[in-house]
Amino acid sequence: MSGAEPLVSIVTPVYNGEKYLRECMDSVLAQTYSNWEYVIVDNRSTDKTHEIAAGYARRDPRIRVVRNAEFLPLIRNWNHALRQMDPAAKYCKVVHADDRLYPDCIRRMVNLAEKHPSIGIVSAYRMDEDTIGLTALGTRAGCIPGREVCRWRLTGGRDVFGSPTSVLLRADLVRRRRDFYNEQFLHADIEVCFDLLRNTDFGMVPEVLTYTRRHNESVTSMVKRFRTNKAEGLLILHKYGPHYLTPEEWERMRKRRLKHYYRFLAKRVFQRDAWKQRQQLREFLNYHRSALARLGAGTGTARFLMYIACALAGAFPERASAVR
Q: What is the helix, strand, coil percentage profile of the chain, to 5?
């Protein structure tokens, strides 16, 4: 272990992750960077997750296993897991139990953050199943002003944040927040990037350093079923647009995104066979009505259906865009 290397806390919150956990943990053990601790936070798993993690901990003293006293909801468990990191850690690296790191991941991310103390978040290209992702900045590397990255994203630029596995965080930024992730957001990992980059810069390593696995379990299934990115992207624009955009830019983007959002809802409601699956449709509409309520939009049934019907016809009502 090199005394010159700052300590990195690697954290894996996991529930019933036996299928991929060994692969995930092996990827941490294979890191070319050596000064790390690894905390596995078991959220009351009912499979062999705890047994697998405990076996690794017996073989390597850098690994700790924490078993929750009670089952916690997803984002709350993420926050609980981050509170387990070593107080001496300078950086924090989340790795979800079904993802993995490539061997140079931590070394390359830490090296960039050490060169630029203003960087709060470091990202890199990732292998998203069989596609290379997070490449929207091209080969641009190094330290990029946080404001510039967030302006670019809010005005239509593609994702560069990825998932918690995709980024390295400066640990003091995590410690300053009692709840690092906003538990009101399903996409809390994206929302927190916009919040942190108000006062820090963004680091980019144009190399594939992480692997993200897609599957049909809980959260991924809900994201696909409800298309939660549509609603939460609009919520992020509503919350952070005033920080990163001019009033004119924010107004223009807000109206455009809201119109697209209602058109999306209209197509879903009036697509073929939608009403034959009434329970699924009811759940879909309840989720999106709740999102509109958080935006301050009227969500009475008649008004809601009128908006989406007008959107489908291309006659979007002006009052529907008056969300503040």
A: 50, 15, 35
The pair of three-digit structure tokens given for residue 91, joined into one six-digit string? 């950086």
Token look-up 């690794």 returns 56
pLDDT tens figures, 81-93: 999 999 999 999 9
Burial class (CB in 10 A: 0-12, 13-18, 19+), 131: exposed
Read off the DSSP letter of residue 137.
T
Distance in angstroms (rounded) separating the CA atoms of residues 89 and 113 = 14
Tokens encoding 90: 């300078």
The answer to whether 68 touches 41, Cβ cutoff 8 Å, is yes
Nearest to 55 by CA among 86, 74, 77, 29: 29
**Residues 238, 263, 155, 296: what is their CA dihedral angle, to the nearest 10 degrees?**
-10
By three-state DSSP, how is residue 29 classified?
Answer: helix
Residue 274: both structure tokens together: 């939608």
- Domain segments of the chain: what residues? 8-215, 219-321
Model confidence pLDDT, tens digit, residues 218-247: 566 667 777 888 889 999 999 999 999 999
Asked if the 8-215 domain carries CATH number 3.90.550.10, the reply is yes
